[in-house]
């Protein structure tokens, strides 16, 4: 009787639990939909069976029954895991449509047609182009052609203008100072010799000063007051036999030395006050005016197509030396700067002709980059040329295909010279081409180039 009561109580509990589950499943269809209700039903049925097996008396000592119970439990759990998940709800196109639509009775005589949702329009596929990974060689050539190359028309026009100004100035000097044996003016500069690019912005106008070698001699730079082997002094000799006035250049003597400062001051006055530049400019279709405040003998030329800066340099050629009237800044007078430009150009052309090399091409790119860079502009010109010449003695492959390798190698060489603070001249190892740079300038340039060794693109960005 007691056993019957326990069974009856259990059935009542089961009946109550079943009623709750039935109610839950009945409402699940409305809340979760058909698929969600099916998943909940399977899960509920499995849990209910597990509870039944846990509360029902087990057949003690019947291993087959226990094994069957375990197998059924694992099968039901696997069934729960294998049940497909309900698909994600699609975004409603019409926000006015309710999220859960009430069930509608089917219309008699018409088959229930499932609602077909229009497919979203396909987004047109854009073929992604592969990333453009240029080599350093290609970047250098592209950078030169796009940013550094100077149109030949501008070079030709600049040469014609400068040549005409040269002729006008030559005629003026011969008429104004016939007693001074000036030689024939001629144009010079990296642009005309293919060593520089970027813009047609400056040219050099060389004014030869012809000296009688019997009356003048050179004093080496080491013996001058600045102790710099690149600066020389020109001394007047044999004054006891050939007193002052025997040479037409004696009017520019300071002590016993031909003063570059005195000669420049005289020429500066002529350029500013004596020459009718507006008339010459009108004749040449341009505007020409001297720069009054400049220490250099500089002319500014403005044309419709080009703008030029022309610097006049008195030059003395003696004992295989080329000396410019370009004294160092400061109170030092009488000094003449030795120029290696002519030797640089000649040596580069000789080397490139011997192996069809790209030294001048590499130098044009380097000059263009450094000249336009706020930190590296003092490296352009002669220092870069001498680095390339030094490197040519050890690196023999200067073919066009090796331009990128030589470019990076020049950067490495420059960093090494900057670390030492010394760049010896290719033609005279006693001369340090970095001697006029400040220590802070050397540090800044060295840091910039050190970064550029691993990232050369830093130098190729537009300024």
TrEMBL record:
<dbReference type="InterPro" id="IPR045909">
    <property type="entry name" value="MID49/MID51"/>
</dbReference>
<dbReference type="GO" id="GO:0005741">
    <property type="term" value="C:mitochondrial outer membrane"/>
</dbReference>
<feature type="region of interest" description="Disordered">
    <location>
        <begin position="81"/>
        <end position="129"/>
    </location>
</feature>
<protein>
    <submittedName>
        <fullName>MID49 protein</fullName>
    </submittedName>
</protein>
<keyword id="KW-0496">Mitochondrion</keyword>
<keyword id="KW-1133">Transmembrane helix</keyword>
<dbReference type="InterPro" id="IPR049097">
    <property type="entry name" value="MID51-like_C"/>
</dbReference>
<keyword id="KW-0812">Transmembrane</keyword>
<dbReference type="GO" id="GO:0090141">
    <property type="term" value="P:positive regulation of mitochondrial fission"/>
</dbReference>
<keyword id="KW-0472">Membrane</keyword>
<dbReference type="GO" id="GO:0007005">
    <property type="term" value="P:mitochondrion organization"/>
</dbReference>
<feature type="domain" description="Mab-21-like HhH/H2TH-like">
    <location>
        <begin position="359"/>
        <end position="445"/>
    </location>
</feature>
<dbReference type="InterPro" id="IPR046906">
    <property type="entry name" value="Mab-21_HhH/H2TH-like"/>
</dbReference>
<dbReference type="Pfam" id="PF21297">
    <property type="entry name" value="MID51-like_C"/>
</dbReference>
<keyword id="KW-1000">Mitochondrion outer membrane</keyword>
<dbReference type="Pfam" id="PF20266">
    <property type="entry name" value="Mab-21_C"/>
</dbReference>
<feature type="domain" description="Mitochondrial dynamics protein MID51-like C-terminal">
    <location>
        <begin position="155"/>
        <end position="344"/>
    </location>
</feature>
<dbReference type="InterPro" id="IPR024810">
    <property type="entry name" value="MAB21L/cGLR"/>
</dbReference>
């Amino acid at each position: 009787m007691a056993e019957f009561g326990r069974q009856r109580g259990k059935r009542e509990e089961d009946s109550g639990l079943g009623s709750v589950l039935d109610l839950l499943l009945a409402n699940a269809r409305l809340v979760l939909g058909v698929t969600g209700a099916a998943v909940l039903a399977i899960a509920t049925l499995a849990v209910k069976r597990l509870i039944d097996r846990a509360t029902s008396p087990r057949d003690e000592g019947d291993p087959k029954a226990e094994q069957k119970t375990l197998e059924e439990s694992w099968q039901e759990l696997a069934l729960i895991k294998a049940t497909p998940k309900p698909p994600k709800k699609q975004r409603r196109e019409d926000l006015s449509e309710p999220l859960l639509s009430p069930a509608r009775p089917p219309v008699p005589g018409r088959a229930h047609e499932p609602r077909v949702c229009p497919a979203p329009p396909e987004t047109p596929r854009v073929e992604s182009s592969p990333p453009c990974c240029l080599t350093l060689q290609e970047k250098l050539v592209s950078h030169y052609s796009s940013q550094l190359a100077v149109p030949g028309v501008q070079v030709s026009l600049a040469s014609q203008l400068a040549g005409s100004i040269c002729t006008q100035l030559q005629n003026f000097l011969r008429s104004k100072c016939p007693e001074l044996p000036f030689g024939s003016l001629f144009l010079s500069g990296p642009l005309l010799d293919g060593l520089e690019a970027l813009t047609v912005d400056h040219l050099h106008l060389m004014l030869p000063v012809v000296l009688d070698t019997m009356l003048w001699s050179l004093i080496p730079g080491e013996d001058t007051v600045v102790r710099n082997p690149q600066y020389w002094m020109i001394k007047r000799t044999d004054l006891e036999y050939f007193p002052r006035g025997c040479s037409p250049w004696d009017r520019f003597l300071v002590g016993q030395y031909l003063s570059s400062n005195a000669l420049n001051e005289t020429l500066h006055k002529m350029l500013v006050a004596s020459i009718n530049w507006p008339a010459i400019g009108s004749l040449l279709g341009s505007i020409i005016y001297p720069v009054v405040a400049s220490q250099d003998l500089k002319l500014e030329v403005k044309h419709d197509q080009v703008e030029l800066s022309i610097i006049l340099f008195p030059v003395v050629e003696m004992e295989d030396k080329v000396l410019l009237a370009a004294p160092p800044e400061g109170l030092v007078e009488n000094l003449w700067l030795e120029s290696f430009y002519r030797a640089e150009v000649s040596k580069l052309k000789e080397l490139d002709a011997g192996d069809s090399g790209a030294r001048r091409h590499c130098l044009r790119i380097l000059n263009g980059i450094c000249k336009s860079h706020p930190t590296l502009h003092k490296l352009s010109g002669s220092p870069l040329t001498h680095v390339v010449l030094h490197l040519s003695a050890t690196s023999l492959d200067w073919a066009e295909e090796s331009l990128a390798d030589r470019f990076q190698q020049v950067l490495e060489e420059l960093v090494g010279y900057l670390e030492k603070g010394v760049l010896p001249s290719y033609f005279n190892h006693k001369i340090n081409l970095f001697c006029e740079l400040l220590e802070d300038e050397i540090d800044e340039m060295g840091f910039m180039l050190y970064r550029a060794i691993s990232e050369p693109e830093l130098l190729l960005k537009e300024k």
